[in-house]
Automatic annotation (TrEMBL):
Segments forming domain Inosine/uridine-preferring nucleoside hydrolase: 5-305
Keywords assigned: Glycosidase, Hydrolase
Domain of life per record: Bacteria
GO cellular component, one term: cytosol
Organism in which the protein naturally occurs: Larsenimonas rhizosphaerae
Ranges that cross the membrane: none
Protein name: Nucleoside hydrolase
GO biological process, one term: purine nucleoside catabolic process
Organism classification: Bacteria, Pseudomonadati, Pseudomonadota, Gammaproteobacteria, Oceanospirillales
GO MF: purine nucleosidase activity
């Protein structure tokens, strides 16, 4: 049986590659994409999701969701990382398809009612849609097979503040709800995505394998790579969102630690993810009150990158 997923996304250059992956992998059944603001405004995210599906030759329902954080003042959009249009400011055709009428959160609730216990939520943007879905229907926690979140950081520090990773910083209140909801959740954060690189040679091979969609992936990658050269001094990009898909298919390439996650929602450390491993003993037990989750701490980055290339050059 194929693995049914709902992909929650804010495309985004690295989202685009992850979307190509979920469409290309024959073992993944994409029930829908739900969109959120994050790298771009939500209308742009929706348009990009529709367009990427179209270029990949797939018909995938897209449900639009969160336009802003649950309670904090929105951050400026990271145009210097992803461009104003989210895909490196390359020229893009207008999608010919439209989003469904259902909201993202309702879509998640409805689909999981149809197939209880089967669906994995792969969330690679700010977590507002999942938080609202939990609010609409708290029994959702019992119907989802698992939740894979790209976001957060334990030992790597942040990428938008010294402490906070972008998706969590964009909506820390939503992240807190999602991490403490008590469902099977794995966090795929900077501790592993920063150890995974797609270099230009690999990207060129991927572009060749993906036709029309490959052109968009490669051209937007060039813009994104400029940022990585300046920010991290690497020749290539971190495929953050693709790492979440890699975990879905190849968890054996990662090492996870089980524990409790607290999200700092306010103040100077806003967006920081504070991890208390299950095995650790602290002077106070307030860090260990929340449900347990799994956190990716180590990865075989080379093999993850090779897997991404293999899927995108053979399907
Ligand atoms: Ca993303």
């Amino acid at each position: 049986m194929r693995t049914p997923i709902i992909f929650d996304t804010d495309p985004g250059v690295d989202d685009a590659q992850a979307i190509a992956l979920i469409m290309a992998d024959p073992d993944i059944e994409v029930l829908g994409m739900t969109t959120t603001y994050g790298n771009v405004p939500v209308e742009t995210a929706t348009s990009n999701a529709l367009l990427l599906a179209e270029l990949g030759g797939h018909s995938i329902p897209v449900a639009q969701g969160a336009a802003r954080p649950l309670s904090k003042t929105p951050n400026p959009f990271p145009t210097f990382v992803h461009g104003v249009n989210g895909l490196g400011d390359i020229d893009l055709p207008t999608p010919t398809t439209r989003a469904v009428d259902t909201t993202a959160a309702q879509f998640i609730v409805d689909e999981t009612r149809k197939r209880p216990g089967e669906i994995t939520l792969v969330a690679v943007g700010p977590l507002g849609n999942l938080a609202v879905a939990l609010q609409l229907d708290p029994t959702l926690v019992d119907r989802v097979k698992q939740v894979i979140v790209m976001g957060g950081s334990v030992k790597q520090g942040g990428n938008v503040t010294p402490l906070a990773e972008a998706n969590i910083y964009s909506d820390p209140h939503a992240a807190h709800r999602v991490f403490t909801a008590g469902w099977p959740l794995v966090m795929v954060g900077l501790d592993v995505t920063h150890k995974t690189h797609i270099d230009p040679e690999r990207m060129a091979r991927i572009a060749k394998g993906q036709g029309k969609l490959g052109e968009v992936l490669a051209d937007s990658y060039s813009f994104y790579a400029d940022f990585y050269r300046k920010a991290l001094g690497i020749n290539g990009c971190c495929p953050h969102d693709s790492c979440a898909v890699a975990w879905l298919k190849h968890p054996e390439l990662f090492k996870t630690v089980r524990g409790h996650m607290s999200v700092i929602t306010d103040g100077l450390a806003q967006g920081q993810t504070v991890f208390a491993p299950e095995s650790a003993v602290f002077a106070e037990d307030r860090w260990s009150q929340t449900p347990l989750i799994d956190v990716c701490m180590e990865v075989d980055g080379e093999r993850v990158s090779q897997w991404i290339e293999d899927v995108l050059t053979s399907h």
